[in-house]
Amino acid sequence: MAKNATPHDAQVIMKLYDLRREPEMRKARKWFGAEFWPQDADDFLKVINSPGTQENAWLRQVGSYWDMAAAFVLSGALNEELFLQPGCSGEMFFVLGRIYPFLKDLREKIGNPDIFLNVEKVATASKTGRKRLERMVMAAEQGRSARNKPVKKS
Description:
mainly alpha
């Protein structure tokens, strides 16, 4: 890392935290974390191609929030080492982990090579980040599998 974190970096992290607590953002994060389990790019596209729906707004809100935060890091406006602390960006890895297995396909189908690009760059820039992302991808796969198992009848 090029520089040590400064008090200004800490203020930016706290502001990002405050934004995550905004009521609509909380709803968006809750939906993404508990209800949105895309199996592939097409599941993601169903939501993206449904403008005017709450889910569309929430997906765009969560995605753009983390892309914006990652852009701060990539531009040097926010210390990378501080941002990559689990308490600061753990949710970013969770979000990316949900879509990472089909991100290339998603970019092709949506015609946007930049979707989640800043998040991906920050998450994969270091060995630590790549390992965290790998764990989140595995956790997402386990979550998807658990949701797709048939319910046993007694």
